[in-house]
Amino acid sequence: MIIIAVSNRVGAMKRQLHLNLFIHSRGHHEASWRHPGSSPLALTDIRYYQDLACRAEAALFDSIFLADQLALGDDVAQAARTWLEPVTVLAAMAVATSRIGMIATASTTYTEPFNLARQFASLDHISNGRVAWNIVTSWLATAAGNFGGTGQMSHADRYVRAEEFMSVVKALWDSWADDAVIDDRAGGRYARADRIRPINHKGEYYQVAGPLNVPRCPQGRPVLVQAGSPTPAAASLHGMPRRCLRPTWRRRPPRRSTPT
Predict the structure, then answer these.
(1) pTM for the whole thing?
(2) CATH T-level fold of 2-140+218-239
(3) Where are the domains of the chain?
(4) What are the pLDDT digits (tens) for 177-190?
(5) Handedness of CA 223, 68, 136, 229 (dihedral sign)
(6) 8 Å CB contact between 71 and 81
């Protein structure tokens, strides 16, 4: 599936298309996996995703998007899915491409901020600054049963928790200054310890000491994406607009000189 966004260039009477490839199974139609022209590769074969990524990059697409759900659907007997975990897939696609942006979905409800911050910082290093996080709170009620819960959290509670989750993740990404790593082999000094700071977060849902155990990534922070916002609460996540963000990986954001 191709997602198209239209933007106006400031100061120029031009409109620009942004093309994103949404990879889902062998196509978004429920019977696409049966089409004789579809790929013969298994949906667990990483070459399938790497090939699509390379084709999208060659066609000058801006990005690739991977959705995710944390429970098996009840239509498994007749519906093929994108089975592989998206963060892992992005790492494999990153080494097969060099320019295209890559967006992975990850839940704030069923993971810990430190784990997610570490995974996406690692991906940003692997891809040389081409990674984005699609933020979701996981609406699927059956997912709760896979993570020790007796029931799904309410919509409002999920978004309150997500606000704190995002604050922790961003603080962890900022816990290393840009100049913390000096890699002085002759002098025997790898990093400036005074340029790496703990975050000492103590909140309603999370207590995280920090700092992150990954140096600051090429983008400073991976791009944040919200694919849809059905309510004002969803749109309010750290000032994100009520639309899909359109990251431009060709323009790198300003880097922080000191950790916060």
Answers:
(1) 0.85
(2) TIM Barrel (3.20.20)
(3) 2-140+218-239
(4) 999 999 999 999 99
(5) positive
(6) no
